[in-house]
């Protein structure tokens, strides 16, 4: 569409079919793979969820892999562990920066309030699989590392934010530039 | 609390711990069993989800069992099939009453818009397991059959609603009274 | 419009006139008549109510007629009796299915929380007239009987939902097929 | 309650009865009478409407009477004329101050967008009765005249707001002080 | 755009640049000047604020000048005094019409709840400058004087609203017609 | 109060006075000083803003100082430069991490969408002063550096998030432990 609104346009109601509410293949990993972090993300894509305030993703994390420290600007999240075990949690806001975390095993569910920093780390020896539900059809995603080191933030600003020197910042930035 | 508000009161923030965001045991059936309909519902109970706009439940449905025709007055729903196969769908509102449904297998996800009538029927030969996410911490649940026949609605009103006679209504009501 | 959004598009503000906020003829029955149920519905149609969170309808119910058991997926409702007398009420959600109902007479007002099952039955001997206000410009309407019997829900699913047999379901479906 | 929140506290759900959703007597004038303006307001009082986003009032206006120019800070309004005839309308916001108005007769409905200035004037010879629905359980009411002249706004400020002199302001204020 | 929605359409995300989030020149008066009331309003215009729930304006008020009694139908407001001194406040709703006001000096901040009538009056001898923040990207503005006297409200209605005579109304209207 | 709800309780309306809507002293720096980052934050504290969807803060940043890279989980922000000059901007979400930034001078205003990472850096030679408005009375604050290094996140997780080694993480953590 040539008209942009806040969120996606809807499909013509007269043309809607059952398939517009369906997505398949969540029983297997799929979608985007991050070798760098060791995860694969299989994003549920259901046109009919537009305006319904939900979205979902399957995550597969290799042993030693992480879904790195991140947050969703417009959603809370609840994750269910389907296989394996992960260290999962969130950090409260400034100035407490308090950690609420737990090793989750198959059948565990953990909730993260809207907009708070969270993560998962597979520090076991077998692959882990999770199914995460977010409370918006447009939750957004900010990876703290990528935000600081993969974009165009000036070195001096990042150094001051992290109480470190620009050389350290440049070294890490170089790592983010490598595939 | 002696003070009632719309929704639940919150816990004292100073006393909140990681366990307030955790629920375990979703890898097994549990919770409430309905022999009548052939399902078991394991409701995720996480105090920290209060105000976050999400809730979750595991459903196990025996071969031949149903989660009968129902709706949630205050939530959309998205269901993931973890095991087995179910016939799953929803009905659009009056006057179309159009059916949007599909046989779902392991790894399939299906979405239901807020407040619409939906159902699942395990018409296979093995147990089916689903994980459903709802877009409210207080979604509510109305079973159409129970609403019509298990409460105190007058027979004549139900008969007129269903274009049937009072004898039929009384016969069905008797079935709802049997455990 | 060729662009579909959640809700209706707006009129060009420069072209808006007083008539866009007006609807007439609510002093008489009108609109859609259901011989089957014995009611006539005169829906207030005001373009200017788009986005304002309200809609309104006049209902006329013949002696013995009903507005059958139904709900609005996206609205609460408040009804005022203008003439006659009706038995009016709603049913709370599962598992209570508790009935909150009352015989209303001229000048009585009764409220129904969002999304709950409700009804009205004119069990008097004179016509009844109501004016109902709903808390959404797009409240939706689901008739429980039509949802179960007038659409394409499979007989076995409906039978299991109602704890009855498929023959009974087919008999009622046949009644819904008759005009 | 000793705990104040934004809006009213709820009743204990276990103690709720049908009467909590009912109000009677709207078939007759009642409630508060304003001799000054020539209207009587019968406010629908239904505890169960708390949090439901609706409120309602019956207005009776004598020939020559007005419900003076006013607005509701937190609600849109839709009014139905039950008896008689009134000149009814609203004024758009600055800088247009455009009038959208119409003589309404029995059976006419007119809508007012949230927060806009509106009024009704019975310039006929028989009493008029309206039923107004507002899109909030706590709509608020500001009468422009009373706000300017019945409170403690300084004379010089009011005079400058109205492009008039303080003597005129004091004269009108004196009228508001008289019962 | 030829498609009208509630609020403004968005810019194509791919074409968004930093300048879409910037507005300059708030260190000087500017924008619209009202000689009549003695103020200049410099409205912050930032396309990127669309949907973000904020808007801002700089106000410069000459000695003796006012921003006349007014309200915003869709926003709360908080004002910061940057220079000079003003008498600032709001009036609660009917029937109290209670004045909450204060002489503000440089560095003072004062808040006005959504939709309530408020004002500022520079009754000092030096110009005053304020920076006001409103809680909507589309707050609306209604000046009580202009609403009553600068539009097409009938004289008799205004006279009855203000408990005065039509001659007084006509005299004030004439003042509003003069530039 | 012993009852915890989402947000703060309200004051008894009968006891509310004008001072409940006022805060003074924003013409001078004040409040909390961070020597580490080189800023002072003077948070506007107005009880009457509760539920109104706004909050405000004055920031003073020394030459070379930063308000380090951060975000607000529940608010958009608009900042006005009152004195001096700052490099100000935000980073879009993953995977773009696109920088929208600009050197702002006195009288410049810049907006940040809800929940996005932003910052300011005084890379001039004179102190800078800003007045920031946020679109929530409870916006929250997360400093990316403090979230990663000042709380209890495990070293290995932070190292993997930042594509660096644990020694670097420990070195930075040590800097955050020093006052």
Automatic annotation (TrEMBL), chains A, B, C, D, E, F:
<feature type="domain" description="Cupin type-1">
    <location>
        <begin position="24"/>
        <end position="170"/>
    </location>
</feature>
<keyword id="KW-0464">Manganese</keyword>
<feature type="binding site">
    <location>
        <position position="70"/>
    </location>
    <ligand>
        <name>Mn(2+)</name>
    </ligand>
</feature>
<protein>
    <recommendedName>
        <fullName>Germin-like protein</fullName>
    </recommendedName>
</protein>
<comment type="similarity">
    <text>Belongs to the germin family.</text>
</comment>
<feature type="binding site">
    <location>
        <position position="77"/>
    </location>
    <ligand>
        <name>Mn(2+)</name>
    </ligand>
</feature>
<dbReference type="GO" id="GO:0048046">
    <property type="term" value="C:apoplast"/>
</dbReference>
<feature type="binding site">
    <location>
        <position position="72"/>
    </location>
    <ligand>
        <name>oxalate</name>
    </ligand>
</feature>
<dbReference type="GO" id="GO:0030145">
    <property type="term" value="F:manganese ion binding"/>
</dbReference>
<keyword id="KW-0052">Apoplast</keyword>
<dbReference type="Pfam" id="PF00190">
    <property type="entry name" value="Cupin_1"/>
</dbReference>
<feature type="binding site">
    <location>
        <position position="72"/>
    </location>
    <ligand>
        <name>Mn(2+)</name>
    </ligand>
</feature>
<dbReference type="InterPro" id="IPR014710">
    <property type="entry name" value="RmlC-like_jellyroll"/>
</dbReference>
<keyword id="KW-0479">Metal-binding</keyword>
<dbReference type="InterPro" id="IPR001929">
    <property type="entry name" value="Germin"/>
</dbReference>
<dbReference type="InterPro" id="IPR011051">
    <property type="entry name" value="RmlC_Cupin_sf"/>
</dbReference>
<dbReference type="InterPro" id="IPR006045">
    <property type="entry name" value="Cupin_1"/>
</dbReference>
<feature type="binding site">
    <location>
        <position position="118"/>
    </location>
    <ligand>
        <name>Mn(2+)</name>
    </ligand>
</feature>
<feature type="binding site">
    <location>
        <position position="77"/>
    </location>
    <ligand>
        <name>oxalate</name>
    </ligand>
</feature>
<keyword id="KW-0964">Secreted</keyword>
């Amino acid at each position: 569409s040539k008209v942009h609104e806040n969120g996606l346009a809807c499909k013509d109601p007269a043309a809607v079919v059952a398939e517009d509410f369906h997505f398949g293949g969540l029983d297997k990993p799929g979608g985007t793979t991050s070798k760098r972090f060791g995860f694969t993300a299989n994003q549920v894509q259901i046109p009919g969820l537009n305006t319904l305030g939900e979205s979902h993703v399957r995550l597969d994390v290799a042993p030693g892999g992480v879904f790195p420290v991140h947050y969703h600007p417009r959603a809370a999240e609840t994750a269910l562990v389907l296989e394996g075990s992960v260290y999962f949690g969130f950090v409260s806001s400034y100035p407490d920066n308090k950690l609420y975390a737990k090793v989750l095993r198959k059948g565990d569910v953990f909730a993260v309030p809207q907009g708070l920093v969270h993560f998962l780390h597979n520090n076991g020896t077998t692959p882990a699989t999770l199914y995460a539900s977010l409370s918006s059809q447009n939750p957004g995603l900010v990876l703290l590392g990528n935000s600081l080191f993969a974009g165009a933030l000036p070195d001096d600003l990042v150094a001051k934010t992290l109480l470190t020197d620009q050389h350290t910042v440049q070294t890490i930035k170089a790592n983010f530039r490598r595939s």
